[in-house]
Amino acid sequence: MATVTEWIEGARPRTLPNAVAPVVAGVGATIQLGAFTWWQSLLALLVALALIIGVNFANDYSDGIRGTDTDRVGPLRLVGSGAAAPKLVLTAALTSFGVAGVLGLVLVAVTGRWWLLAMGAACILGAWFYTGGRKPYGYAGLGEVAVFIFFGLAAVLGTVYVQAGRISWEALGAAVAVGCFSMAVLVANNLRDIPTDKVAGKVTLAVRLGDAGTRRFYLTLIAVPYVVTVLLAIGHPWPLIALVTAPLLRTPVRAIISGGTGPGLIPVLKDTGLAMLAWSVLTALGLGLS
């Protein structure tokens, strides 16, 4: 029986910035549009958190029963390590998805944005089939695309649209930036796992690009948000304050450029996630002040 600490680790708390950051960025764009409602933003945040915890448990379950997580370099995997029975981890995943679905339904019902139900259903299906099903798309190198769509475009623009009933160019820019940050987190994770994924037959984008190509891709992705910052400042100078978050990426960039591998890449995930969260907070502040 897994301990409470192991269950918390299995939920992968280091990935939570991927859920918080897009909602925060979306809140900034919503404030700029004059449509911010605190409780709707809170519900959107809870939906995003439930979704990412659900996808983490679903990933743990699906990879675990396939044997992909048998030899892990990164944090604990409940099924792969034998700490928890597969059915319990599956139940945790489905429960998280259920919570996300119920909260999302409440949000849609009170705002009347009913077509967002389709987007919510797509998010849940995308979360499951990332590593679940007979042909998981995460095993075909499409995980980064899904992260960009669901934890970039959908999360940011959904937060804005459900409150404002429309989106703005600033919201779209923030969505692209956060999506690239989220992709960078996954790219760093998959860079670390290239050796074990090859053995397990998991053909991630990192496996396809190879070690050197994946490192270049990571560096490109983390540059995009700062290009977006400059573009946002063309009409509104306040978003430039987000540039102060760039030094937070110094350690991850050093690890990537120096050829860090295995455990040496684990901090890259955390630091990239924190930089994404900090960028989103300051960008939201900048957009709100605009």
UniProtKB/TrEMBL annotation:
Pathway terms, separated by semicolons: Quinol/quinone metabolism; menaquinone biosynthesis; menaquinol from 1,4-dihydroxy-2-naphthoate: step 1/2
Coiled-coil regions listed: none
Chain segments annotated as transmembrane: 38-58, 88-108, 114-130, 137-161, 167-188, 217-238, 272-289
Entry membrane topology: Multi-pass membrane protein
Catalytic activity: an all-trans-polyprenyl diphosphate + 1,4-dihydroxy-2-naphthoate + H(+) = a 2-demethylmenaquinol + CO2 + diphosphate
Any one GO molecular function term: 1,4-dihydroxy-2-naphthoate polyprenyltransferase activity
Keywords: Cell membrane, Membrane, Menaquinone biosynthesis, Transferase, Transmembrane, Transmembrane helix
Class in the EC hierarchy, top level: transferase
EC number: 2.5.1.74
Chief localization: membrane
Superkingdom assignment: Bacteria
UniProt subcellular location: Cell membrane; Membrane
Role played: Conversion of 1,4-dihydroxy-2-naphthoate (DHNA) to demethylmenaquinone (DMK).
PANTHER family: 1,4-DIHYDROXY-2-NAPHTHOATE OCTAPRENYLTRANSFERASE (PTHR13929), UBIA PRENYLTRANSFERASE DOMAIN-CONTAINING PROTEIN 1 (PTHR13929:SF0)
Similarity annotation: Belongs to the MenA family. Type 1 subfamily.
HAMAP family: MenA_1
Protein name, entry field: 1,4-dihydroxy-2-naphthoate octaprenyltransferase
Name of the gene: menA
